[in-house]
Amino acid sequence: MKSLYLFLFLLLSVTTGSYAQFSFTLESSSIRYNGYHVAHDWSGVSTTAKGILIREEGVPHRIAISVPLNSFDSNSSNRDSNALRVLNALKFPEVRFYSENIREIDAETVELSGFFELNGLRKEYRVILNAEEYGDLYEISGEFKVNLLEFDLKLPRFLLKPIDENIDLTVNLKFKQNS
């Protein structure tokens, strides 16, 4: 937990003192993963992400999200504990995303180019998500794929067949502007 707060503090401390810079804290979140196997599909959800968003001149500029792996619930304790083992959660308990390169594609779409970190490995990722602003809230939502093999993870097998190497992530992140 200390590493999460240090991570978020460092993100805040590297921001410049721009006149029109505002920070937003993640107020509520839903992050769902969908996994696939020839025998069955499944999903797990977490609502305990921590994060921060920095906007400069009204445009998103930086984002950092951290999610404890043990917070994902697939409604099967056996599957969840196996997932924690496969993801090396004892050694690397969080999955993270960080971007300093955010581009507004249009009024409702943003492209985040940054780093996705899982299993102690950091990989460059580019995702295109929906963005919506209302009042002091800023919401980012959408879907993207993560290839588990890119993070040196051994795919679990069921009925002699491995799970699909790609999982789909669906995110809904609601940030509230700090006073």
Report on the structure:
The chain has helices at 2-13, 77-86, and strands spanning 21-36, 41-46, 50-56, 59-68, 94-106, 109-118, 121-134, 137-147, 157-158, 161-162, 166-177. By secondary structure, the protein is mainly beta. The protein has a single domain, classed as Lipocalin (Beta Barrel), CATH 2.40.128.110. The strands form two sheets. An eight-stranded antiparallel β-barrel has the order 1-3-4-5-6-7-8-11. It has a two-stranded antiparallel sheet with strand order 9-10. A hairpin with a 2-residue loop joins strand 5 and strand 6 (109-118). The model has no long low-confidence stretch (mean pLDDT 90).
Topology (SSEs and partners):
Elements: H1 2-13, E1 21-36, E2 41-46, E3 50-56, E4 59-68, H2 77-86, E5 94-106, E6 109-118, E7 121-134, E8 137-147, E9 157-158, E10 161-162, E11 166-177
Antiparallel strand pairs: 1-2, 1-3, 1-11, 3-4, 4-5, 5-6, 6-7, 7-8, 8-11, 9-10
